[in-house]
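Fold this: Threonine efflux protein
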Amino acid sequence: MDWPHLIAFNLTLLAAMASPGPALLLALRTSLAQGRAAGIAAGFGLGLVAAGWTAAALLGLEAVFALVPVAYTALRIAGALYLLWLAVGMWRDARRPAPPARAPAPRAIARAFRTGLLVNLANPKSVLFASAVLLVVFPPGLSGADRALIVANHLAVEWAVYTLFALLLATRPARDGYLALKPMLDRVAAVVLGALGLKLLIDR
């Protein structure tokens, strides 16, 4: 494996992270609504699982899904139901005032981290995507050190991007803009999450 392979992987990863989806939506909304620390915590949870899916792909988990399709189906349904549950809660709380801007309690930060973990766990298609990207970008016969470097690189990129999001979006102007449009933005986010959950539920 050479550095051009890693650069190509990172460019593909950045493009995937920028596409609308539950992970990006959670990172943006958490940073706007709950502040910098919660946004970073959510990003750490998202990144940890995303890198875990890449590790699983490198270990051949997609082959396990192919051999035992019921495992993939069960994980997909559980993930879809979790996204729908998040969407319902977001819609229900859309008109609830946001908490005042202050450092979130450790419990809130832990909850943001846990939500980040669960949102990316809710999408088992990530391992299929990772498998396809790894197959196209990297040469065959990767060593154990190469595989570890790929996973560590993925984790570093995810954490760096979500931390940057949190730092940019947790500013006073960004938060004021969000608060002014909170009911509409939260309901749009709920619809998007709900649509993604339904898509995951009905896809084959």
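The longest helix spans residues 144-169. The chain has one domain: 3-9+22-202.
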